[in-house]
Fold this protein.
Amino acid sequence: MKKYLAICLLTGLIVPVSSSGSGFSSLRFGGDARSAAAGMAAVAAGNTGAAGFWNPAGLADLESWDMIVSVQRWMQDVRSEFIGVGHGNGSTGLGLHILYTTVGDMEHRTAATPEPLGLFSSHELVMGLSYARRLGKRLRLGITAKAYYEKLFLDEALGGGADIGLLYLIRENGLRLGASVQNLGKTSTLYEDDIDLPVTLRAGAALPFSGPGGQWLLLADGVQVRNLPFHLHTGIEWNWQERLYVRLGYQSGYDNRDLSGGLGIVWHRLRLDYSYTPIASGLGDSHRVAFGTSW
């Protein structure tokens, strides 16, 4: 019974629905562990290899190579892998990110029978290639070209799209404002169903400051996905000497999640991040582990 309930819930979250809803729901759950721990409030925070996923304009602040590999396990048989790579010279940046999500061991039935005919799985693959550039001292602009692939049982769908992002520095090493429009594009039908990409508008801010015990970062994003309610994502990050990071986040208005948290450890050029998000359904919580490096 637990397995059956998990599959029913996951079908609503991952598997594409008709034209009245959205497909590629895995895009709404993010990619890297750092952002997940801080409430997925990342539109103005990113200058790592994961920036292309949230706001490609953040890649313009890179001054070397940066890479993040993140693995997520949650809700029974849902697995997600993310890789983000970026390179910049302080004025322009390039990035590549890949998000791959699978839902395994779903039961195949054509009628109400005691035993299924077999098992099948669902697969989502999203790839993005990003370019970013500084426009003057304070403004950054970024764009991402994206490819989408969906497979459910024997049916497949392909598509293409784009993201556009902006970053504006109110002051150097201070308040940053960011905005991005994601998943502008179109896919083919899956069997006879249209797939609407989850067109998403993000706008938010990141404020670093010195405080008790170390450096702090406050994050806030407003997130509007087409045909869905508005959500507010907030996060806070504390770090001690850029070696130990503690993160907390909150996402408003969701039925199955709200709080999140995690830790980060930095040793020389290596980073290890972990995030934990309780799932209200009781079918399993979300755990992510990410490894990062720069060179």
Summary: Confidence is low (pLDDT under 50) at residues 1-21. The chain is about 5% helix and 55% strand. The CA atoms of residues 7 and 106 lie 7 Å apart.
